[in-house]
Amino acid sequence: MTGTPSMITDAAGPRRTRQKSLGRRMVEHRWHYLFLVPMLVLFVMFTVWPMIASWYYSFFDWDGLGPAEDFIGIQNYSEVLTSPRFWNAFRNSFIFSLVAIFVQMPLTLIMAIILNNPRLRGRNLYRLFLFLPVVTTTAVVGIVFAVMLDPSGGFVNEVLQSTGLIKDPINFLGSESSALPTVLIIDLWKGFGITLIYWLAALQTIPAEIYEAAKVDGAGARQVLTNITVPMLVPIAIVILLLTFQSSMNPFDLIQATTKAGPNYATDVVATYIYRYAFDPEMAAPRYGFACAAGVVFGMFTLILTLIQAPLLRRRYAKGVS
Predict the structure, then answer these.
(1) On the CB side of 301, how many CA atoms lie within 13 Å of its CA?
(2) What is the DSSP letter of 9?
(3) Which residues lie within the region annotated Disordered (predicted)?
(4) Domain 75-321: which CATH number of 3.40.50.450, 1.10.3720.10, 2.30.30.40, 3.30.390.30
(5) What pTM, to 2 d.p., does this model score?
């Protein structure tokens, strides 16, 4: 019995030491925590609060002036869910994601494998040229392409006509049938470099010794690609897929700079749909409450699509790791 208090003291001693050391470390690093305060304040102001405010104002018929007093319940949500133009914008946004996932990702993977070859001369220069559109302002890209694709005097139409490929100029951005495919191609070109960098970073994680061992065993290029490169890229490919999906759902700046959601809403996406009701100066009375409801609905659908992907991607990740 005499040894029991000392045993308790010995057991509690390390715990108190750890607690004291943690508190002491927090005091020692108080300036580090202090430097985080501006970031936390900005995060609350520009991320947390807008999310909460969107939910709140979506239940009001509010024009953005004065306090929101006209409570209308779920009427905004009912109007959004029954609006053909909203579903048209949602469909176009989803098409951007499909193109990014099923066209951009495979093409960038092929290009990354080519540029990852150490025997390729000038590969760093090629990477630079492919990445330049990413760091170029999207508004500038949109304006330049709008000028180049102009049916009256645009560079592209002049080249096509001079080579005899077309007889009459094509209104790439002014026709309902060609506007969306044209913007999709521009968006593919603009975001090609960032996905390429993702794949290049993923390829760098594969040890060179594995490739050397495969060559010693007599494996060909196709066998190395299908049995080594692709399986080992699966875990990181899941992350790339999620990043690509999220970034592709909001091509607002490109659409606004090229077509302004026209012609006849052929290139309208959810972001431009929300902007039109909240900030478009052509509207006599902005409908901030309705725009907030549209944003909430779109956010919920995006969240649901992400959650649906999660278990499938997790299972695929487990297979890739094993």
Answers:
(1) 16
(2) H
(3) 1-21
(4) 1.10.3720.10
(5) 0.83
